[in-house]
Specification:
Shape: globular
Distance between the termini: 120 Å
Number of helices: 7
Radius of gyration: 36 Å
């Protein structure tokens, strides 16, 4: 037989244990507050907030780079001796600074056409770089396409932007469609054909209201150039945007050189 002993505690012994079934320091709670952790400046029983009256950190503003001309043509443009792109082409100057294009054509818009990876095996292992293809146009007869490569995507896009500005070429717009015969500049003046790599593109003038009968990326390039109505016919691997953009730019350059 087992004998059980019952030990009765006095009320003074029960209070020394922190109440009825609780820990010392309060009625069933931890020290520092009723059931909460020690509070800070944020309030009693809660987590502390910002200590003191320290002001919030100010947001950094983007740094605007000021163009400093380095070539003779750039200095003439900066001093307003040359104010239009037509004067540069008439005198046969060579454009070597993107700041010249940005000042004479402030309404140019840039658009990223394609991005990708470049992987190459080296003695130290596999190296990976990024490439970006950017188009710049003002939707009124000017278009340029540039390619940039770098280990960082941001730097690759910046290089492509500068290359696109340096490759900006004039495009002659008109209405070469026998169905329309208007005097507005909404299409190409005549049929043009260009080739880049394995891609061949032919642009035919269309009547007003037709729109651009072309693929998505080719349509965006034609919009940047200012062409609103045209038919297009392509051959080759048009998914390779590097070759496709070169072929399209060669087509549009012929409108100015032949016209």
């Amino acid at each position: 037989m087992s004998i059980e002993k019952t030990v009765k505690k006095t009320p003074q012994q029960q209070q020394s244990r922190g109440g009825f079934g609780g820990r010392p320091g309060g009625p069933g709670g931890r020290p520092g507050g009723p059931g909460g952790r020690p509070g800070g400046p944020g309030g009693p029983g809660g987590r502390g907030g910002r200590q003191g009256n320290r002001p919030a950190r100010k947001r950094r503003e983007p740094v605007v780079e000021v163009w400093e001309p380095k070539t003779l043509l750039g200095k003439k443009v900066a001093s307003d001796e040359i104010t239009t792109m037509e004067e540069i082409y008439e005198k046969g100057y060579r454009i070597q600074e993107a700041g010249i294009i940005k000042k004479l054509l402030p309404d140019l818009k840039t658009e990223v056409i394609d991005v990708g990876l470049i992987q190459k095996m080296t003695p130290n292992g596999q190296s990976t770089r990024f490439k970006a293809l950017v188009a710049a146009g003002n939707q009124n007869g000017w278009l340029g396409i540039g390619l940039g490569k770098s280990k960082q995507m941001r730097i690759a896009i910046e290089k492509a932007n500068n290359a696109a500005f340096l490759n900006v070429s004039p495009i002659k717009l008109g209405c070469g469609s026998w169905e329309c015969r208007c005097d507005e500049k909404h299409s190409v003046p005549f049929t043009v054909k260009g080739k880049g790599g394995s891609v061949t593109i032919q642009i035919l003038p269309g009547p007003r209201g037709l729109g651009l009968v072309a693929g998505g990326k080719i349509r965006n390039l034609l919009k940047l150039a200012g062409v609103k109505d045209a038919w297009t016919h392509t051959n080759g691997s048009t998914a390779t945007m590097n070759s496709t953009s070169k072929a399209l730019l060669e087509c549009l350059r012929q409108t100015f050189s032949q016209g």
